[in-house]
Amino acid sequence: MLTINDVRKTFFAGTVNERVALDGVSLTVEPGDFVTVIGSNGAGKSTMLNTVSGTIIPDSGSIQVSGEPVTKLREHQKAHWISRVFQDPMKGSSPNLTIEQNMAIASRRGKSRGLSMGVTRPRKQQFRDELAKLELGLENRLGAKVGLLSGGQRQALSLLMATFSSPEILLLDEHTAALDPQRAKHVTELTERMVAEQKLTTIMVTHNMEQALRLGNRLIMMHEGKILFELNQEQKAGSSVADLLSEFQKLQTVSGEPTLDDATLLETVRVTEEGKP
């Protein structure tokens, strides 16, 4: 389904600010795989998603989707295959358009777009049916502008819109990180259900190590632009957050530098505290 082969990306090459973001990343994602990605800030997680989505063109290496070379294609050219949900709930939809208008656009992802084709009476009923699955009452607010929704509602809508056209690859870039715990839990549950129901091939970047272990059938850890190790489904089931923290600590021992950023540490502490009796 998705093949990333020896992809490299350096920012500000040849300057004092030179930074190697991806250092020979290779990854094969099979149809139906749900890969979770962990690593501290600067590990290359989002940069890898950016090269897959076409937001960033890699310096070298190759990317294929279903055997088709897509390395040099821009984001809009990959929209037929790839859909993405960002960390910021504001990025996945247009605040000045209504819910039904946003959904109409999403339904035309990768195709010629036009609202007139998307807001017919049958389409409105389809939108209501899909929105009802979110269990947020949005099916009764088709005419409401998206900018009036809460962050949790908007992120749930963004997730629905991203899966609306059944993309070949779904990219989730810390899509629950900006939400409060209750709404993050709801969006996580929606994610798990939608991916399973549609059998979507998915890559999810997260700071939440418990989430990374619980969701999906594969887990990879990145550090300094490289994939350091991978756990398959059986290995994930037999691992704990403490095991992942141990791997980070091993890296810190070798490099002498902190390998966990504040966001990861705070998320780990929060999840650990919530799990206490």
Task: Describe the secondary structure blueprint for this structure.
Blueprint: E1 2-11, E2 19-29, E3 34-38, H1 45-53, E4 60-65, E5 68-69, H2 75-78, E6 82-85, H3 99-107, H4 121-132, H5 151-164, E7 169-173, H6 181-198, E8 201-205, H7 209-214, E9 218-223, E10 226-231, H8 233-237, H9 241-255, H10 262-274
Parallel strand pairs: 3-8, 3-9, 6-7, 7-8
Antiparallel strand pairs: 1-2, 1-4, 4-5, 9-10
Helix pairs in contact: 3-5, 5-6
InterPro entries: AAA+_ATPase, ABC_transporter-like_ATP-bd, ABC_transporter-like_CS, ABC_transporter_ATP-bind, P-loop_NTPase
Membrane topology: Peripheral membrane protein
Subcellular location: Cell membrane
Account of the 3D structure:
With about 280 residues, this protein is α/β, with parallel strands linked by helices. It has a single domain (about 1-95, about 165-275), classed as P-loop containing nucleotide triphosphate hydrolases (Rossmann fold, 3-Layer(aba) Sandwich). About 40% of the residues lie in helices and about 20% in strands. The protein has helices spanning about 45-55, 75-80, 100-105, 120-130, 150-165, 180-200, 210-215, 235, 240-255, 260-275, and strands at about 1-10, 20-30, 35-40, 60-65, 70, 80-85, 170-175, 200-205, 220-225, 225-230. Strand 9 and strand 10 (about 225-230) form a beta hairpin. The radius of gyration is 19 Å and the shape is globular. It is a peripheral membrane protein. It comes from Kocuria gwangalliensis. Keywords: ATP-binding, Cell membrane, Membrane, Nucleotide-binding, Transport. It is found in: Cell membrane.
